[in-house]
Each structure stands twice: as structure tokens, then as C-alpha cells.
Amino acid sequence: MNTYNFTSLNPPHIADTLPSARSVSPVWRRFVAYAVDGAILGILGSAIGKVCFDKLAQLGLLGQLAGFCVALVYFSAFDSEIGDGQTFGKRYLKVRVIDAKGNTIPFAKSLVRSVIFLVPSFLFGLRLPETRTSWVLSSLIFVVVLWVGCSTLYLITFHQQTRQGLHDLAAGSYVGSADVAGPVGIKPILKAQWVTLLALLVIISALAGIVRVKLEMMEPFPRMRHDALLIEQMGGIQRAHLSDSLAHDSIGGGAKKDLDVNITLQSNSINQEAFANEVARTILQNDRNAQNYDQLSIRLFYGYDIGIATRWNHQEFAHSPAEWHERVFGVSPIQIPSPSHQ
Does domain 221-334 have CATH number 3.40.50? Predict the structure, then answer.
């Protein structure tokens, strides 16, 4: 009599032969991979800057565009099928940009993905002239940085099922493990998460608008903005920024109130000491409150910021308002006769 072992018809490890869904990358791996890529781009940008320092410095804000293009080519190419879905950072962290089926994405989709990802970060680092930038442009930059950049950061961090930012959603891409083949195990983003994100963006936008209006009405913001406007009207300046601070006096033991004037120059061919004197003259002639500070510090910066790398040379000229007055007018304030004696 023949006997059959029916258990032999079902291999004991048949579940192991079924294709397993590929998991998306943990958020920490994506952040570390991006940090590695940022370091690589920084080294490349610094090398370019060492050779072309003056040219990059004279580009001014256009230098950001140059850095953006370098980063765009890097991420678009390596994150696509050209680079097998891996930048150097992703290769080191063993993750890959793929579609839902587990395949690498074409260059066109990778380009769209990279643009949406990079634009907010580069706009965030953009240092526009404070008094020559319209509120429309400032508001547009704020909206792009907050609503695109922060939305991407939120979705990658808190949507554990897919970790898709807006750039991934637009390209239909995922960042998955490079050690496992096959499709990605995904779940749709819940409506509750979209509602939460939208509510956060609206609240942050409203609060930012209220804070900005309040600051623009409070001293010393209007006065400093007016001083910056006068300085930015001078030739050879990219940007002027004023702030005040309290510094500890190591000799007297008290606190010193400083007025700091940071100026980005368009050229390094000017006489910086004479230029600083002219800036001090402008402030002292138009801002009576400048006399209330213990020190007026004028810092002149010349260099570049291309987003992926930055380098600045600067020179500082710091004196008390009375010393500046004697330096630029040839007489101390107490020696100037009052209008009633003229």
C-alpha cells in the first residue's frame, strides 16, 4: 500500500520565495545622505571659488544661481537612471531613488524632482537687499520656502508609510533600500495628515505676517531700515544690514550698546577705510540716535555665497560715535556750536 506525505506538497519555506515589498528608507538615512552630498558639493564649490573668487564675488546674487545649477545637475543625474538612482551620499547610506515598481526613474522626472527640492533651500539662503526688494518678491519667497520646503520636510519626517516629500509626489518617486529588489510597499497619505499640514502652514503664515508688521512698527527697526536705505543708495554696495547688540565690557564690567553695520561690497577695488568713513558720515548726519550707542562698528564684506559654498573676506572699523564724529568731520560733537549760538 502506497502512502503519501501530503505535507511534502507544501514546501516549508514557500513564504520566503514570495517577493517581499521593499521598505522606504528611514528618515535619518535620507538626512545623513543629504548631509554627505552637501559636503561633496561644498568641496566642489570651494574648489571653484578658489580659482574664480573675484568672478564669483562680482556675480553677487547671481552666484546663487550658479551654485543652484551645479547642485541641480548633480542631483538630477545621479538620482535618475543615469546614476542608478544614487548620489554619493545615497550610495554610502545604501538607499536609492525608485518608482513604485522598484525601478530607477528617468532623467526628466529626476530633474522635476530636484527643482522642487532645491528651490526652497536656495531661496532660504538668498540675501536680498533689504530696502530694494519689494514686499511682493519677499512674500513670494516666503511662500515657496514655507509651503514647499517645509511641506516636504514635514511629509518626509511624519508620513512613515512612504516618506514622500512634494518633490517625490511630483515625480512619483520613493527613496527605498538599495539592498532589496522589488516594488515598494506603500500606503496613501491620510487626509488627516494633509489637513494637519495645511492648518500648520496657515497658522505659521499668519503668525509670521503679524510678527513682521509688529517688528516694522517697533523701534529701532524703522530707523535702521532708513539707515540701510541711505547706505544702499551709495555706489558699490550689494546689501546693507543694521542691528544693535549688547556686549559685555571686560574693563568696566558693564554692558556696551553697539550699532553694527554689515555691508556687502560689489568690488574690492575701493579704499575700504575711506568708504567706512563715508558710511559713518551718512549715519551720523541722518540718525540722531546713533550718538546713544557706545560703539559704531562698520564691517565691510567682500566674497561670495553660491549656496553650495561660501567665502567672505571682511574688514571691521569700530569707534565710538564721538571718535567717528571727529574722524569724519574733523571736530568732536561737543565742539560743534548749537543752533542757538549761531
Answer: no
